[in-house]
Design brief:
By secondary structure, this protein is α/β, with parallel strands linked by helices. The chain is built from four helices and eight strands. It has a five-stranded mixed sheet with strand order 2-1-4-8-7, with helices on both faces. A three-stranded mixed sheet has the order 3-5-6. The chain is globular, with a radius of gyration of 16 Å.
């Protein structure tokens, strides 16, 4: 059956396509580093890391500390941090042995002058995610947003099915 007019679904991703686009190539260890940027080292941040390990059991999920004081970074007229400045710091601190480095912040971000919540670096394996718009949302949705974006960095395509974690509607 044809999709209703105006509704477009991406073609399904086959395993061979995932392997072509994924950073998991020969000899890649499959580690995910999460860099809390400006997030306190409190119970909520620790809970996020534990939840990520539970959702991604096949990967080594570890905390990555990069020396980035957010108060020193440039901000837009609206007060948002320029995502590419943060990506530059993350990229320089990314160990060669990791597959994915994801910076997390509670600050609003902007890229190319526009508000943004997720910005991927040019290397395809480094990104910054703002949980700013998620403030007050339930914790499970916040964790699923982070897992969705880690999967994007690992090469999984977005999905048109509403119940799928890879659906981009609310990630």
């Amino acid at each position: 059956a044809a999709a209703p007019q105006g509704l477009r679904c991406a073609p399904p991703q086959v395993f061979a396509g995932f392997l072509r686009e994924s950073p998991f190539r020969e000899g890649c260890p499959g580690s995910v580093l999460v860099a809390p940027m400006g997030l306190p080292d409190d119970a909520r941040t620790q809970s996020l890391l534990r939840s990520l390990r539970a959702y991604l059991p096949a990967l080594a999920v570890e905390r990555h500390d990069c020396a980035a004081e957010l108060r020193l970074f440039r901000r837009s007229a609206g007060g948002a941090l320029f995502a590419h400045d943060l990506l530059d710091v993350l990229s320089r601190s990314r160990p060669a042995s990791c597959s994915v480095l994801l910076g997390l912040t509670a600050e609003p971000l902007c890229a190319a002058g526009e508000p943004a919540s997720f910005v991927q670096g040019e290397d395809g394996c480094t990104a910054i995610l703002s949980l700013h718009r998620r403030a007050g949302d339930d914790w499970r949705r916040e964790v699923l947003t982070v897992v969705h974006n880690i999967h994007r960095l690992l090469g999984l395509a977005e999905c048109g099915f509403l119940a799928c974690l890879m659906n981009p509607v609310d990630s």
